[in-house]
Design a protein that fits this description.
With 558 residues, the protein is of the alpha/beta class. It has helices at 10-14, 20-28, 57-70, 85-88, 97-115, 129-140, 161-173, 178-187, 200-211, 226-244, 249-252, 255-267, 273-285, 291-298, 315-320, 325-333, 349-353, 413-421, 448-456, 517-526, 537-545; strands at 40-45, 74-79, 119-124, 144-148, 379-382, 391-394, 402-410, 429-433, 464-467, 478-481, 501-505, 510-513. The chain is globular, with a radius of gyration of 23 Å.
């Protein structure tokens, strides 16, 4: 049997008389004589019926397999897990959300390394499985492509999952009757696909396309569409070129490529989770991306997309006018993207964009670069005495650029949510939710329930919220997350008391607890580290190995 360079891994599994047992087992799953001479491509499917985001992905995996096989390689579909943020939000189960990113990366690495796959195509459709897929591909560093599962269509009356969360807050105030809440609940999610705004899923899909790890337009297709099926077939065909030319993630996921991804997600008004995930993805491929990169790039990059949660349009509407490719071409022409970055097409970013047409005249989803929603980044990296190692805020300017208020302190998300719903949080409060960081939670839960309750109660302009946890891409308002050091590590957020004055200033990029240095030291001396919430199992293991949010909350740092 031949041992060409595109079979450097599978040949060790299937070549030679000693590997007859391996071949025998593979024959049982459909291999024929000719298949052993072909490069093997593992297709990592994140299908499951636990969430609409991924319920269709096995169908897409089959389409990818058709493309792989037609190009002369051999497809091997396997599964990895997914969880649902939207379903587990506000519960103890949500602590497993960020943890699942590591499980997914570990499982893709384990399966494809064990089975000798020469290339890998991963298909993701939800917040954590996309960066998890990329981290697994980066660790393996074999020819790879990512395929996005696609976005969901709008619900009735232009609703989506965030509409349901905010309706809960509206019902608590008496503004929305139970009948209307029930109707929104039943009609907001019409079928397969990722949450419809520029929330974390669509943010990460767009970032991965800008990174060069998915085919052009993969991020801007509806989950249920002929274009998405064709994207899958095309990815299967494209992997053969990467195999033949030994083009690996490390050739594509360079520092300049990550700068392209950061630039794009800023212009789109993307999720704060992109900060955490892009740092982690870069770490997996051996590239250093830090909070300072988001500051540097954010100073020259405007927000120009009127997309939810801060805007009014959904991803499906951006798809109708051309997706993100015309936006990327505008950025390239303005000198804001690196056009020489290699992509999974085998061409550079500039070559991919050469024949892309601009958006149709009259559309108002993507604004001109010189007439932005915000002249610089909405992803504001804060420091100051309350976040000496950094924090991440999402401030579009619609909320104002600074907020000073009085601390209302809660040691868990549940405590804060109950206080908001019951009316104990009022105008000029700064809600502090702590012990929800990577180690303290553990798991760094997203705070969509509290932020949506604040919006639903009509307090969006009058209340700020800070946490060592995270925010959903659907969160909006004056919110600050990823506060480091986290409370469990004795960071200053652990020392805040009810009634303390807190100032958040997006222009100076500082978050300040208005107490003296002496008082801060005295509080630190009297602080005691709480007992871990979990002592066995996955969450306990995660808490022992996870790094700070400011370094991506990864679990395999040396």
């Amino acid at each position: 049997m031949s041992q060409d360079s595109s079979r450097k891994y599978s040949s060790k599994i299937v070549d030679g008389t000693a590997q007859a047992p391996s071949r025998s087992m593979l024959r049982a799953v459909g291999f024929g004589d000719e298949d052993f001479k072909r490069p093997q491509v593992g297709i990592a499917s994140t299908w499951s019926m636990v969430t609409p985001c991924n319920m269709h992905i096995n169908d897409l995996a089959e389409e990818v397999g058709k493309g792989v096989d037609s190009a002369g390689a051999k497809s091997v579909i396997y599964n990895t897990i997914t969880i649902s943020d939207g379903i587990s939000m506000g519960t103890e189960g949500m602590k497993y959300s960020l943890v699942s990113r590591e499980v997914i990366a570990d499982s893709i690495e384990a399966v494809s390394a064990c089975m000798g796959h020469d290339g890998i195509i991963a298909i993701g459709g939800c917040d954590k499985n996309m960066p998890g897929c990329l981290m697994g591909l980066a660790r393996l560093n074999r020819p790879s492509i990512f395929v996005y599962g696609g976005t969901i269509l709008p619900g009735e009356n232009h609703t989506d999952i965030v509409s349901v969360f905010e309706a809960v807050g509206g019902h608590a105030t008496g503004d929305i009757p139970i009948t209307e809440l029930t109707k929104i609940e039943k009609t907001a999610i019409p079928g397969p696909g990722s949450c419809g705004g520029m929330y974390t899923a669509n943010t990460m899909a767009s970032a991965i396309e800008a990174l060069g790890m998915s085919l052009p337009n993969s991020s801007a297709q509806n989950a249920v569409s002929d274009s998405k099926k064709q994207d899958c077939i095309n990815a299967g065909i494209a992997i053969k070129h990467l195999l033949d030319n030994d083009i690996k993630p490390s050739d594509i996921m360079t520092k300049k490529a990550f700068e392209n991804a950061i630039t794009l997600i800023i212009t789109l008004g993307g999720s704060t989770n992109a900060v955490l995930h892009l740092i982690a993805m870069a770490d997996a491929v051996g590239v250093e991306v830090t909070l300072d990169d988001f500051v540097r790039i954010g100073e020259r990059t405007p927000v120009i997309s009127d997309l939810r949660p801060s805007g009014k349009y959904l991803m499906s509407e951006l798809i109708e006018i051309g997706g993100i490719q015309p936006l990327m071409k505008r950025l390239l022409e303005a000198g804001l993207l690196h056009g020489d970055c290699l992509t999974v097409t085998g061409n550079t970013m500039a070559e991919n964009l050469a024949n892309v047409a601009d958006y149709p005249h009259g559309q108002d989803i993507i604004l001109p670069l010189d007439k932005p929603i915000k002249k610089d980044s909405h992803l504001v990296i804060l420091s100051g005495n309350l976040a000496p190692e950094g924090a991440v805020s999402k401030i579009t300017g619609k909320e104002g650029l600074s907020f000073t208020g009085t601390a209302k302190v809660y040691d868990s998300e549940e405590q804060a949510f109950e206080a908001i719903i019951n009316g104990n949080v009022v105008a000029n409060d700064v809600v502090v939710i702590r012990y929800e960081g990577p180690k303290g939670g553990p798991g760094m839960r997203e705070m969509l329930s509290p932020t949506s309750a604040i919006m639903g109660k009509g307090l969006g302009d009058d209340v700020a919220l800070i946490t060592d946890g995270r925010f959903s891409g659907g969160s909006r308002g004056f919110v600050v997350g990823h506060v480091t050091p986290e409370a469990y590590e004795g960071g200053p957020i652990a020392l805040v008391k009810n009634g303390d004055a807190i100032t958040i200033n997006a222009e100076t990029r500082e978050m300040t607890l208005d107490i003296s240095d002496e008082e801060m030291r005295a509080r630190k001396q009297s602080w005691q580290k709480p007992a871990p919430r979990y002592t066995r199992g996955l969450l306990a293991k995660y808490a022992k190995t996870v790094s700070s949010a400011s370094t991506g909350a990864v679990t395999d740092k040396p």
